[in-house]
Amino acid sequence: MKKKVLIPVDFTKVSENAVNHAETIARHIGADIYLLHLVGKSQHIEDGKSRMEAFKGMMKNRYAEIDFFSAVKVGNIFDDISDVSADISSDLIVMGTHGMRGFQFLVGSNALRIVSSSKTPFIIVQEKAIRENGYDDIIVPLDLHKETKQKLNIVVKMAKYFKSRVHLISPFEKDEFLANTLKRNIAFAQQRLADAGIDHTVVIADRKKDFDDAIISHAVINDIDLICIMNLKENSIAGLRGGGYTQKLITNEAQIAVLLINPAETGYIDIFGV
Question: Which of 38, 151, 246, 274 could crosslink 75 through cysteines, CB 3.0-4.6 Å?
């Protein structure tokens, strides 16, 4: 059965860019694209359908190799994206955000309702287009959580598809016990990537910077295409607590796309199965 990539759209340039990312992914993994538009009231359905047909037609003309499907439903992004994803058994959700202006859709409890309630991984994009060949360089923050190993599985599979370089970055830790734990995690990650034949680098974050700032700075310097982070509990992402960390990464000024992966029993491993 063909894989499916779901894209919630609002017909803006950011939605067009979400399709741009999704099309490149779909072309590499042999997937169909499903466009979803949610309206607040039933009386807006017909207008939504008209706009959807125009948008889908434009995308089909632009990306003729991909099969597009669409739906317009009454609902909201906080409650219904994960339901639609489950209904169609999507393998990946690609969603656009308008940077800081649109970040109210992605922070706090509402953000966790979108991402955490879904068994599907998310790629969050702004207006920066994907490269023609996909994600050439992927940055992976490492931390003290066991879920880091889970994150590596999908990174390895993505890197094989796109022939990506993987950049591992770890926070500076002055506590000896924690520092040794981080070293073991780094060694595990390096071995996992080496065994898969994936080109990779390792760096310890600048101790003078917050870890989120260090990740973004390193990403900009190395022209990174994708930041891969875990969606952990209690507003924790990549092992650090606080919604500000999430906000900085997803709305980074460099407009680098962010892959959000839910830990535990999700279906995400299969999307890049090789």
Answer: 38
